[in-house]
Amino acid sequence: MATTVGIIGAGRAGVSLGLALARADYVVRLHGRRAKPVPPPLTLSAGPSPTWLSQVDVIILAVPDDAVLGVASDLAASGRVTETQVVLHLSGALGREALSPLESSGAALGSLHPLQTLSDPQTAPQRLEGAVATVEGDARAVEVATALARGVGMEPVPIAADHKPLYHAAAVVASNFVVTLAGVAQRLFVSAGLTDDAARKALATLMAGALENVRAAGPRAALTGPVARGDIETVRRHLAVLHGPDAELYRTLSRAALELARLDPERRRAIEELLMR
Q1: Where are the domains of the chain?
Q2: How many helices (H) does the chain have, and how many strands (E)?
Q3: Cβ pair 128, 153 in contact under 8 A
């Protein structure tokens, strides 16, 4: 008999994971506060609380981090979560403790965090294939989270609850800050005379190439540019035309790049001194 998964939260994460699970032949129930269209084969129930709580094997809270504890408290107060069930949340920064109000239910508690951007639920099943998913919590919760991750093609990786904030910070640097850097780079390209369309194309090809190099060989081998080459004068020219927050961002990231660069001590010191000015 297929595992039945109930997802509370119909935002991008909930709909994306729900669609991936449904296409992997899980029975999925999806609930949100308000009615809205969802991609088939999903259907959405709406209202304060799902009516299907006692009918599912796994309950997944796909809600913002700040809401996990409150939703767990509401579920505990309902008295409809039982020891036969598993309750998971999708937060990358929180551990099992965020579900602590459900301790008395006897349900197995834990977390499942897909390490992938899920901006478009329609493409989520393909994007989740091969992605890492961290799993944490009670032994039975980890077992079920692991099975769900593998069921949609992800690679489950155990993580300790107290390591999750650092892990999630790394994920933010790798994903959110890359997008932020793309925004900064596009603005600088346009200031240098490129059109918006040309700047977007430049970003897409340049960043895709860099990420492919990272995938193939890792960050240290993939690093290129003036810091990697020890090109002191180019760094000096860049700093001469950058101002305010842009200059500070350049200095900060160049110092981080120096940690990866393979430079002789003299060139390293010269660039370090230049970045300190």
Answers
A1: 4-161, 174-276
A2: 12, 8
A3: yes
